[in-house]
Design a protein that fits this description.
Elements: H1 6-18, E1 29-30, E2 37-38, H2 81-93, H3 97-100, H4 103-113, E3 114-126, E4 129-135, H5 140-149, E5 152-160, E6 163-166, E7 170-184, E8 190-203, E9 210-223, H6 226-235, H7 238-244, H8 255-267, H9 271-280, H10 284-300, E10 313-316, E11 323-325
Parallel strand pairs: 3-9
Antiparallel strand pairs: 1-2, 3-4, 5-7, 6-7, 7-8, 8-9, 10-11
Helix pairs in contact: 4-5, 5-8, 9-10
């Protein structure tokens, strides 16, 4: 029989004193609580297993917490406004070359992040003076599409030190140091940083879509990789060097986007005519008559004297305040 060493006896005595009793050399320790065997080194450092709150103690059992329900008021989940911008950036990065020309994808993108009555406003200053363009919900998909049609390969927004304010039905995000970053692949790779103030108004609900978007552009920078400049410097091509010195955007916006914004000045007032034509299948002439008559009636008639107006009615007879149909004669 192998004789136990003094070191083993001293270790056994220290274990007996601190943790419990050993039946025989090599046996596992048995604790007073629940008679649960564990290895001597299994207990956390500084925790006495004989403590009721320690391993094996009655207070260590969490069965009494199974049916515990915290007394907290459950509120509907509303994500942070800056996280919605992160989701918008992620959705723009997930598009493919086929989807860039797909109107359905851009309509779905706008429906996900913008309300039905949302407005998007851009204000900046060009060589011929300050500009301000405001477009409605139906023109927003085409605006984002025009950015990529102008040679942009990537688009995302970076917000720093944004301030949030909560209202009854909306959440306002005000970021004075917002940056719109676009990557251009033609005529050479260029990173354009458009800096300005971005003010967004979100709906205070689960969808948390944008109600108003206002981006006031202050300045922009166009960055070219140093390797491109070094390559053109060694080639000593005057035309290429001159092309490098010219900006490819105006206040961070491509010519494609600027032309679309100018076109929106004409398209935006026509949205009412287009909606009426789509809803009631009226001819363009009748849509124009109906719209103009409604606007004229609102201006000249008091609110209490406004007549009931149907989509097919176009004008009012002389001397009688009676509306006539589009196919009737005076």
């Amino acid at each position: 029989m192998k004789k136990e060493s003094p070191e083993h006896n001293s270790f056994q005595w220290s274990v007996q004193r601190q943790f419990g009793e050993l039946d025989a050399p090599g046996d596992r320790i048995r604790f007073p609580f629940n008679n649960m065997p564990v290895h001597p080194m299994a207990s956390p450092v500084g925790m006495d297993p004989r403590d009721p709150g320690g391993p094996g103690g009655p207070m260590y059992n969490h069965d009494h917490l199974k049916n515990y329900e915290p007394k907290m008021r459950h509120t509907p989940f509303v994500s942070q406004p800056d996280y919605r911008i992160y989701e918008l950036n992620k959705r723009l990065q997930q598009r493919t070359e086929v989807q860039e020309s797909d109107n359905l994808w851009w309509d779905a993108f706008a429906s996900e992040f913008f309300e039905e009555d949302a407005t998007l406003t851009l204000s900046f200053c060009l060589e011929d003076g300050p500009k301000r363009y405001s477009i409605g919900r139906t023109l927003i998909p085409r605006y984002f599409r025009s950015i990529f049609e102008g040679g942009v390969t990537d688009l995302y927004y970076v917000l720093k030190h944004a301030k949030e304010s909560f209202h009854n039905t909306s959440i306002t995000l005000d970021c004075d140091t917002a940056t719109m970053i676009t990557h251009h692949g033609k005529p050479m790779f260029t990173k354009v940083c458009t800096e300005g103030r971005l003010v967004l108004e979100f709906t205070f609900d689960d969808l948390m879509r944008i109600r108003t978007w206002h981006f006031a552009i202050r300045q922009h920078r166009e960055l070219i990789p140093r390797s491109v400049i070094a390559m053109q410097y060694h080639s000593q091509d005057p035309q290429m060097l001159e092309q490098l010195s010219k900006n490819i955007t105006r206040q961070g916006l491509t010519n494609q986007t600027l032309n679309y914004l100018r076109l929106c000045v004409i398209l935006e007032p026509m949205q009412e005519l287009m909606s009426r034509h789509k809803a009631y299948s009226l001819s363009p002439r009748d849509c124009l008559k109906t719209t103009l008559f409604q606007k004229w009636q609102r201006m000249v008639a008091p609110p209490e004297n406004l007549q009931d107006f149907s989509p097919g009615d176009t004008y009012m007879t002389k001397g009688k305040h009676k509306l006539r149909g589009k196919n009737s004669t005076v």
